[in-house]
Amino acid sequence: MDNTNTGLLAIWSTIAAEPETDYMHWLTREHIFERVGVPGFRSGRVFRRRNSRPSEYMMLYELDDADVMASSGYLERLNNPTAWTRRIMPTLQHFRRGGGTILAQGANSAGHGGHLAIARFEDALPECLRAQQGQAIVDALAKGDWVVNAQIMVVKSEATAIVTQEKSMRQSSEGEFAGLFLVESLDNGSLDRAMMQASKAAGINPDLFDSYDLVFVCYSR
């Protein structure tokens, strides 16, 4: 297996305080391992949004490519949820899920920081983040002090929209989005500086970015 992945899958949910411990045990003792065991999944990371109350978590999976989301191995897991998954799914709030193709990658894709900023674009990925201009933006970000990585991803909506048993168990509809702009760093100060640089370079509102801290990671064997 080479060191280059071309796909990402990002999943958000908010969890109330009472079931949060059960939720975190589910993620870190069963769910992430189960997902990363699917062929084509390279890693699974869990992040918590900075200062969120109730807690908002994001799972970020690296994929061989976007087609993994429509693979038989992944769909088999989604259509045969475990008993623990069946218990957790109805407790999730503000669920959002989207995966697709990495359009631009700055720095080494195998390197990760413990602090992550994400701008989520609901309707369309800005044109300035596509093609050579997007690559130039992430390359410049990756040269910043204490910045580890920068990526731009466009959602593959046909794969994300596949109806599954697991999706039917959630009480609210699944939120959709069109693309992501991600920056990883070694501390919060460098992350805040990178967010301002990214906002200026892309001509977007800095408030589009949310900050997250890494709480768990699992890699494929």
List keywords for this structure.
34% strand, globular, 7 helices, 8 strands, 221 residues, 8-stranded antiparallel barrel, alpha+beta, Alpha-Beta Plaits, single chain
Brief characterization of the structure:
This protein is of the alpha+beta class and 221 residues long. It has helices spanning 20-36, 72-78, 83-88, 131-142, 157-160, 165-168, 188-202, and strands at residues 7-15, 41-49, 55-63, 93-106, 115-121, 147-155, 179-185, 209-219. The chain has one domain (7-219): Alpha-Beta Plaits.
Give the SSE map:
Layout lengths: L6 E9 L4 H17 L4 E9 L5 E9 L8 H7 L4 H6 L4 E14 L8 E7 L9 H12 L4 E9 L1 H4 L4 H4 L10 E7 L2 H15 L6 E11 L2
Antiparallel strand pairs: 1-3, 1-4, 2-3, 2-8, 4-6, 5-7, 5-8, 6-7
Question: What would your notes on this structure say?
Answer:
With 221 residues, the protein is α+β, with helices and mostly antiparallel strands. It has a single domain, classed as Alpha-Beta Plaits, CATH 3.30.70. Helices cover 29% and strands 34% of the residues. The chain is built from 7 helices and 8 strands; from the N terminus they run βαββααββαβααβαβ. It has helices at 20-36, 72-78, 83-88, 131-142, 157-160, 165-168, 188-202, and strands at 7-15, 41-49, 55-63, 93-106, 115-121, 147-155, 179-185, 209-219. The chain has an 8-stranded antiparallel β-barrel. A hairpin with a 5-residue loop joins strand 2 (41-49) and strand 3 (55-63). The protein is globular and about 45 Å long. The mean pLDDT is 92.
